[in-house]
Backbone:
DNA sequence: GCCGTCAGACTAACCGGTCGGTATGCGCGG
DNA sequence: CCGCGCATACCGACCGGTTAGTCTGACGGC
């Protein structure tokens, strides 16, 4: 009985995406064969290439999902009716929490970007930049208002913070002593403390 | 005329290492074939497998070189006869400068770690941890002396800073407006400002 | 004449992607 | 309400190409 779902209840494309996400995060993009993905999803290559144009497409889809989620959340915090200090803190902490909650996607994102073909790479970079610029605008707003120090260019501040987010997949362990929210609060605090005039 | 050196004056193993470093950084470990490496070095596979046991060995050798260099430099700054504030600032800025000056090695390091076999991976992680702990000790020393804030656990502070270092290869462009030293000063400044009591 | 150094042909495995074929359920004419 | 026909969903064998690694042997200095 083929019909979008199978053995379990989830549709095949989502099962493939989930399996690919896990395997890419575990072994990396290149070390994961299409065969392994379809086996983990309980289908065959025919099914995969029925829904996705290529192995690249699969990776791109993972990226798109993360990007969409993070942009939505950033917009939400940036548009809130709060003082700039609170909005930046909220956004800075939230990106940490959502990154930890999707550590697989995050590690794929930062480790496998260069496996994408040139045009898809450009597309992802453009969306990344949009995100970066929205975040930077928050820092600049605070600097104009005199709430944040202008000692460091806003660009560098943003890269500094995102560096730590990027780095999370390297050292954060879910079974460690700190909850995602605690880590997020600490990292946001470090950012805000660094920005004190 | 086979004999440690060839066309140019540099010994074959070093030529292979240099070629591998450049190609790994450009295309990534998996996308670089052994054939490409030996062609770039002006030799053949026979030469490569005469000096290195495997492609993995090549990668491991690149890591070992970076690790050795960074550990040496950190020890130098940490052992200096200066107030803790100055020692930490020096170390924090120096790791940025040397990372920028060896951006190829750095991007390989952070992107290809997981390509190493299990035992070699463990070895690299152990050396990494040694480095991390030396750095953390500096932060803790300052915290004990009351020079640095204890609001954030030293571990997190170190990961925060290394995150930005890790991230450098993503955004730093040599033809950009900031020199390596300027970037380093700014990032070290951010760290020290975040640590103000 | 022997040993370090390397060339280059070779192999066995594996990869992403294709393709002809099959089964299932839905729309629709009767 | 039936059954025909087609679109959709999927299977699995297969292909051309690539890969890391091996092996035999030769060249040249000591």
Residues:
């Amino acid at each position: 009985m083929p019909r979008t779902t199978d053995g379990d209840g989830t549709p095949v494309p989502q099962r493939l995406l989930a399996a690919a996400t896990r395997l890419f995060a575990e072994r990396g993009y290149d070390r994961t064969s299409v065969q392994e993905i379809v086996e983990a999803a309980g289908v065959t290559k025919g099914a995969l290439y029925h829904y996705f144009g290529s192995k690249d497409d699969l990776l791109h889809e993972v990226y798109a999902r993360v990007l969409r989620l993070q942009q939505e959340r950033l917009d939400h915090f940036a548009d809130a009716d709060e003082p700039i200090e609170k909005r930046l803190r909220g956004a800075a902490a939230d990106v940490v929490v959502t990154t930890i909650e999707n550590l697989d996607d995050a590690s794929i994102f930062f480790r496998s970007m260069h496996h994408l073909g040139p045009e898809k790479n450009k597309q992802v970079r453009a969306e990344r930049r949009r995100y970066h610029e929205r975040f930077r605008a928050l820092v600049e707003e605070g600097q104009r208002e005199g709430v944040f120090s202008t000692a460091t260019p806003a660009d560098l501040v943003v890269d500094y913070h995102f560096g730590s987010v990027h780095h999370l997949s390297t050292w954060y362990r879910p079974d460690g002593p700190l909850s995602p929210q605690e880590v997020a609060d600490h990292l946001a605090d470090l950012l805000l403390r660094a920005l004190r005039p």
Remarks:
- Chain A is about 75% helix and 0% strand.
- Chain A touches chain B through 37 residues (CB under 8 Å).
- Residues 67 and 127 of chain A are 7 Å apart (CA to CA).
- Chain A has a mean pLDDT of 90.
